[in-house]
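Work Package 3 committed the consortium to producing structural models of liganded targets before the mid-term review. Because experimental data for this complex are still outstanding, the team generated a predictive model from sequence and the ligand definition alone, so that downstream docking and mutagenesis planning could proceed in parallel. The input record is reproduced below exactly as it was submitted to the modelling pipeline, together with the SMILES string for magnesium ion.
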Amino acid sequence: MKIAVINFSGNVGKTTVARHLLVPRLPGAELVCVESINADDGQGQALRGRQFGELQEYLQTVESVVVDIGASNVEELLALMRKYRGSQEDFDCFIVPTVPALKQQQDTIATLVELAHIGVPASRLKVVFNMVEDGIEVGRAFDTLLAFVAELPIAQADMRCCLGDNEIYERVKGAGVDIAALARDSTDYKALIGKARSTEDKLALAQKLATSRLASGVLPELDACFAALGLTASGDAIAVSAPSATA
Ligand SMILES: Nc1ncnc2c1ncn2[C@@H]1O[C@H](COP(=O)(O)OP(=O)(O)OP(=O)(O)O)[C@@H](O)[C@H]1O
Ligand SMILES: [Mg+2]
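The resulting structure, written out as tokens with the ligand in place, is given here.
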């Protein structure tokens, strides 16, 4: 399974979705950040043709990969995909995370339109509704985007593909830890807190306890969101073979 996580907008959760939703649930998947490919480039973030060539070559050599495309590279990447015709087919699926702010919903619509334009079919283009606040319905928070997709069904916008606003992502940011592993953490922090001598140690342990509890709480939501994405080896829904009509 080869997945691109993409949106013209920054800060919509591309890295979070790649790292915490997708990679841990795709056996053997590697994470590639397009931003880092040219981090040393004095010109800033723009993706160059040569690097895109390298990315395409790399995609032919791996079975399972999640490519996190930094917002500053999206425009360039799409231009290159147009140039290298058919290269969008290297990805089984394009996942587009989005957040409720109107500007981000509009950017998301622009992203979906661009991807459809370069030939990505609706079956391989999926929205993840991110940072949904407690008590707010997805349908209401994302009414602009949903109205657009209802009118022009160029992408799959399944409201079950959603993630709530949760502090856990900020806590684990950059730490390279797996949320499932944190949820499995069976350390008896309360006992450790009881034994800790200094307040500082107690607070550090209390932080770990809180993180582990948040991880346990968010895991079912991540699993449900991933299941609703319906990702399979072909990128399409699992085909149920109908019984043959011929004898
Ligand atoms: N569901 C969520 N709940 C709370 N915070 C979140 C959630 N998803 C992402 N965040 C936070 O929002 C910020 C932006 O997320 P992230 O870095 O994943 O976005 P991005 O689209 O990759 O941004 P960029 O375009 O800069 O690469 C981060 O601080 C992250 O921890
Ligand atoms: Mg990012």
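Reviewers should note the following from the model. The beta strands are 2-5, 30-33, 65-68, 93-98, 125-132, 162-164. These observations will guide the Year 2 experiments.
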